[in-house]
Amino acid sequence: MLRRIIVLTAVGVLATGVAAGAAPARTPAGGSGPRPPATSPPPPGAANGEAWAWTQLTGQGTRIRYVSTDSSLTCPAVRYTLGATRNPFPMTRVSTPMGSQFPTTVCELAVPLTASNAVLEQSSVQAATVHPANRQLPLPDWTSTTRPRRVVVIGDTGCAVPATGPVQNCADHQNGWPFPRIAAGAAGTRPDLVVHVGDYLYRDDPARENDKAANPGCTTTTDRAGWNCVVADFFRPAEPLLATAPVALTRGNHEDCNAAQQGGAGGAWFRYLSDDLRANGSCSVYSATTPIRAGTLNLVSVDSSFADPGDTGGTAQAGIFARQFEAVNQAAQQHPGNDYFLFTHKPLWMVKAAGTQPQNVEWVTHVLDAAVARTGLHQLADNVRLVLSGHIHLYQMLDFGTRRPPQLTVGSSGGPLDDGPDDTKVVGKMIGTPAQAVHQSITQEQTPGGQGVFGYAELADSGGTWNLTFHDAAGAVRGMTCALSSSTANKSFACH
To answer: What global pTM score does this model have?
Structure first.
């Protein structure tokens, strides 16, 4: 199938506007409703600023998002082909500059699934610099009856610059912070979809970073979680991937709310990356469960960013998350013949450490596991095939050989790596509610029980079977290829 290309100039994909007879669109401020296709470019604005664009799958369908620092406060138009016609469609303005943290205009556009060859109209772009430079971004390469053939999974990608303690070498993209190299390598495989399992923004004190020359505007403590730091931590390194495939995003604990529930990393998340964009800089602790359709593959995002925030093993929030997982099951039951992947930042059953004794096992996240057990089914629906998570800075595939779906953790795409367990001591350990024995554990580590390996996961559809591989920072396959069983009673991987 030919890849369909869309052109854009800012970041995003979540819109609610009507695109030429497509799904209903976001109503612009003032209640004027969707605008008709543009017949001429918008009035010229200041030829300055920088803009970023990407395509994002949301609960409302495919969205193109555009973020610019130019001073015109206008939105560009996107031209795409639909059926036998090719027309331009104006993007809807979502927000305008708000203080020094958000010096941006944010725009978005809903794009029908059957659209192709979308491009940002050059005459309507007011920014002096646009990313990607060719003004093209990808559209879904599937139909309502097919699904993505190649899915890349990344997570925990930001460069760690804490207020105290060790600082990651953000300038070293080989060994210090390899996310730029990982993104470029993954883009080279031409994925149809990129799934990010959270944690984008790690620069808590930009004054301590060593790549300030490459990131003007993200150099002082007051710049933390501002637009320029969002660019430094995510958009600039991820640009090759954003130019190659649509993305599906879930929130991580680093995109947290501050005490004022306003601004901060959480405010940046809701302004630029969340399913439903906000214009007022506000931040919410919990977001609604979001089903996202990618043809016959369904992704369901659960915001676990605040689940057991201290990672203590507590279950006090089980009632809150039980409602989230009940929504997952209800969504899955709408299309029982489709595969569902649950993606949420914190894992449900990832094993961090294991000893020789049966009781010697440390796994995360107990509150999410307890919440699943509280649902009406007391489990995830049978067609929830896989759980995708991050948070722990390792790659690990864990399965149980039961109706419980495998847990795939991909927290190894940029942040400083954790030590993992010895897999031989993980197998057979009893975890979860009800407790089930681990059937198979594959953790990518430099030595058993040692530090993890930077990289990403790839799920490739091979004749209806999902084949899972881990790719290191250089893009090479490391370890075995694992095929996901089609059985609902024995959800496991056959690895060779």
So the answer is: 0.91
